[in-house]
Amino acid sequence: MTPRLRFAPSPTGYLHVGGARTALFNWLYARRHGGTFILRIEDTDVARSQEEMVTGILDGLRWLGIDWDEGPEIGGPHAPYFQSERLDRYRAAAKQLLDSGQAFEDEGAIRFKVPPGKTAFTDSVHGPIEFDNGHIESFVILRSDTHPTYHLSVVVDDIDMAITHVVRGDDHISNTPKQVLLYSAFGQTPPSFAHVPLIMGPDKQRLSKRHGATSVMEYEQQGYIPEAMFNFLALLGWGTGSNDELFTREELIQRFNLEGISGGNAVFNTEKLDWFNHQHLMRLADEEILARLRDSGLGAWDLGADQRSGKILELLRPRCRKLTDYPEQLRPFFEDPESYDAEAVKKHLSMPGTKEHLLALKETYSAVQWTEAEIEKALRALADARTLKAGVLIHGTRIAVTGRMVSPGLFEMLVLLGRETVMRRLDRLAHTL
After folding, report:
1. Does residue 53 contact residue 42 with C-beta atoms inside 8 Å?
2. Is 275 helix (H, G, I), strand (E, B) or coil?
3. What is the pLDDT, as a whole number, of residue 117?
4. Catalytic residue among 95, 118, 209, 347
5. Which parts of the chain sit beneath pLDDT 70?
């Protein structure tokens, strides 16, 4: 049977990391097996559902590249299903159970009548799970305001949409016996269930906004790229069976299986995400880096038209872990420093004679051949002639051209900046001392 899976978020909040990972697992399984992935917005909680949150969910999925295959006829394939458009269907299903004696009315609401015995299912992650029905109270399926509860709407939807696999968080395990009972009451076979481990913060508490970003889209604003987040989320609670960690979307599709899902909770490690982001940034072509900087509004300079762009990016790539790191690293190549780091000045420029040393270096650089080797050779020769440690001139030059204590390789930078720019910045710094 061709698999059909769904992601069914509630628009009472933005798409968070846990929800994104759930969507990703469902999407990967569907794509791996040539199946169908459905997006269904569970918006029957009228008081808490917000259109803004729906937009946030759709934006987050699209940013990650998680597309869906079906939608209601009214919206076409690019619109998700909305439960609020199916209320009559849920009411009819509740009446069906009422008429068959499997539900009863209680103060205007309709409750499902839990039969005696036990309810069991086999979870693809945790194995066989069994519940004693004596511990499950007869639960509401249609509220007195005629809106369905979660248990009724999710089962009716999954039946109508022919869902074959339900992949969701461990926190839904306790809901599953009620839903299995409803499948049986409707004369239907339940789908295959796979409950994936929850995502924890570094403090081993359930991941929440106190651990950082509250929505997936905040990570985009922080400079993360979707390829990295996609790769990182896929490996949160799932393993490939190898020590490999860096994968493209296509590679993850080919490898994904439910057997690789761990039964233990996964820990969201921001340092690890940073590593993934850096690795995926390193894989992008120069043109793609420039396009993303431009699209995100981070490209303040026309770097694409600059003949130095390739060499500049080559120099900066090892230092930029996020897209947002690029603007500050690029700035010295296009603008003179507006100010100088106070700590750097105090540490490296406070010795007597520093002004004269920098002006002497400026004069030396007016005649030297402008290559990395010759620039460095001239600096070291001047340091020897003035009985200085070369570091005095190296640090002074770095502060002059960048305003900071740290930078990419200094002599590579000087070549790319050009003789006139370096001399001007040395002179400017010297006359502030």
Report:
1. no
2. helix
3. 97
4. 209
5. 73-77, 209, 212, 300
Q: What was the pLDDT predicted at 296? A: 86
Q: What's the CA gap between 80 and 57, in Å, rounded?
A: 11
Alpha carbon separation from 136 to 44, 122, 126, 143, 212 (Å, rounded): 23, 19, 21, 18, 37
Q: Are strands 81-82 and 36-41 parallel, antiparallel or unpaired?
A: parallel
Q: How far apart are CA 424 and CA 405, in angstroms?
A: 19
Which pLDDT score is estimated for 368? 97
The torsion of the CA quartet 137, 138, 144, 150, rounded to 10 degrees, works out to 80
| pLDDT for 76 | 56
DSSP 8-state assignment for residue 143: -
- Cβ atoms 393, 357 nearer than 8 A: yes
The per-residue pLDDT for 92 is 98
**Under a CB-based contact definition with an 8 Å cutoff, are residues 118 and 17 in contact?**
no
142's CB contacts (< 8 A; 6+ apart) are 90, 91, 94, 109, 110, 148, 149, 152
Query: Residue 318 is encoded by which pair of tokens?
Result: 């090892």
Residue 38 φ/ψ, nearest 5 degrees:
-115, 140
CA distance 117 to 135: 10
d(CA 108, CA 398): 76
Two tokens at 323? 């897209």
CB 397 within 8 A of CB 379: yes
**What is the spatial distance between Cα 402 and Cα 386, in angstroms, rounded to a whole number?**
24
Query: What is the reported pLDDT for 74?
Result: 54
Residue 209 is among the residues annotated as catalytic for this protein: yes
Query: What per-residue confidence (pLDDT) applies to 75?
Result: 53
Residue 53 has phi, psi (to 5 degrees) of -70, -35
pTM above 0.85, yes or no: yes
